[in-house]
Amino acid sequence: xxxxxxxxxxxxxxxxxxxxxxxxxxxxxxxxxxxxxxxxxxxxxxxxxxxxxxxxxxxxxxxxxxxxxxxxxxxxxxxxxxxxxxxxxxxxxxxxxxxxxxxxxxxxxxxxxxxxxxxxxxxxxxxxxxxxxxxxxxxxxxxxxxxxxxxxxxxxxxxxxxxxxxxxxxxxxxxxxxxxxxxxxxxxxxxxxxxxxxxxxxxxxxxxxxxxxxxxxxxxxxxxxxxxxxxxxxxxxxxxxxxxxxxxxxxxxxxxxxxxxxxxxxxxxxxxxxxxxxxxxxxxxxxxxxxxxxxxxxxxxxxxxxxxxxxxxxxxxxxxxxxxxxxxxxxxxxxxxxxxxxxxxxxxxxxxxxxxxxxxxxxxxxxxx
Length: 369
Fold this sequence. Notes:
This protein has a 6-stranded mixed beta sheet with strand order 7-6-8-5-9-11, sandwiched between helices. It has a 5-stranded mixed beta sheet with strand order 2-1-3-10-4, with helices on both faces. The protein has 14 helices and 11 strands. It is 51% helix and 14% strand. It is globular.
């Protein structure tokens, strides 16, 4: 190569380097943000509304500005029990609640949470839903109701108390004639036990208790019950019940809005549901146990629900579901599916599981004595 050709080559190399440098500059995305307006079925101060915000934040963070979910509290657009219709019609793009709130549209919907679930806890019910046929059954029910929605279930709730009572329950007869708040198929179960049930939304329960419109009520957990003000108006709480021992949350999307999202964004939502489910479970242990301890320190009396009342619940439940299954083929279909899954899953779970209460008593019973 002669010296006369060197400048030209150097010029070409310099030009290539400049071009390469230009290619390495990050491209600025011009994609627009898709905003979705959600409403929860919980007051803004409730831990359940916090869970709804936690889910939305996971989606928003992972979407990197391409998708933003805004969550409004209960009643901001529609009442809590009208969430499904609002999402279906597109009045809301989505929502956060529980399947049992749609019980009035098809009794089978209450089987996602109400009743003993053949002995399944909330996490096992979610296992049935995701891997045992429950998801397809829920889609079938929504289709029969002409509800154009996409549903995700997540967040296994801890076993709910029997509730807050002006007088502690000592025997089955104490439930007869009692003016009591609950929701879902638990309404039918307690009615079978002779209880006078009023299915009030969450925000109306404590005022009704305070005014004497009801004698007792259940909502959900120590953290929610405390912030809603139950300890301010009633000083007795009965722990343990089969009325809602396996409930979980539901995230709803308007089907049209959901289908318009890219596959990547739909995948982000899918994995955000799973991440939020685990995170909610861990947060519930921390917050519920702390609020339970604080309420005991404040003088609230907690009692174990008598076994006789629990057995009466099971007997009333059996009568209730037998009647509903005879009236509603979809109810029977869901019930049969749960029975098959529970018999197998719980055989394994009960045989393999160790008695953690034994270990707890080993370490802490002497300390408390």
